[in-house]
């Protein structure tokens, strides 16, 4: 049968959410690595504690969840049930699995960041785009164009250039074994995060309940709570809770600034995670990976300026290749969108489920 094309309110709202999540992701992507590195270079050395900080700020998500609940209370049909949480058991279990993987990913990343300058580690993490693209193809059947393939290739090569010529960035007195282990840990973190994004997208696609942005925030809350619990176990085994107070007193910038750093770190990383899965919800895991990488390039420049980290020719080549890949992706995306002509009508066959909706993004 034929139905008139619906109004563009849903499309406009989704685009607005995409922009908002890009801003949230930007804040977290800039602030998270920089503040974490600030913690390490001024005397912080608790790996499990820094991993715990990446997700322990999750209670802040309760605020927007509560706001969404109050909005529904004012606008929803009085006869309909309005719950604070809509997360059902299948999605809840999926969020637990994602949380365990996230906790492990946090540890790998923090271990590597503690042994590398943030500028170098950021560009090595750029290799996660290759993992994201590969897993997106396998898990969610991501369609690639010549432009998106070129983007993934250039971004990966850019990270490879840096990885092969990063020995001059080695921190003073860093043993060979620790340096290599840190390098491997960062690559492992890249692979895991590259797996997490498509897995989140697959979770959205396979869910048996309607995915709203409120539900996305609930999934994020469970993921972070589980990841925090995972890192809490590591902290207990490593006696981090007993040593954090002493570390704060010995922190080079002072005890007050120590706690300011750790609180800011927790908030920034929460922005990173929420923005990342929000972009997956509004668009795709591949776009989320592209944006994360582009923002890492800015992090690289900021780190060189504010932390006085070295800026060799290899970093410049890596940055140029990565930027070229980023522009290639969006040029191809714009070119593809121009080829699509908007239909005046939507054909719906009787074989489709009554609630089937085609995503507009």
Automatic annotation (TrEMBL):
GO terms for cellular component: membrane. The chain crosses the membrane at residues 16-41, 47-70, 91-109, 121-140, 147-167, 179-200, 221-238, 258-283, 290-307, 313-332. Gene3D superfamilies: 1.10.3730.20. InterPro entries: EmrE-like, PUP_plant. Keywords: Membrane, Transmembrane, Transmembrane helix, Transport. It is found in: Membrane. GO terms for molecular function: purine nucleobase transmembrane transporter activity; purine nucleoside transmembrane transporter activity. Belongs to the purine permeases (TC 2.A.7.14) family. This is Probable purine permease. It comes from Gossypium tomentosum.
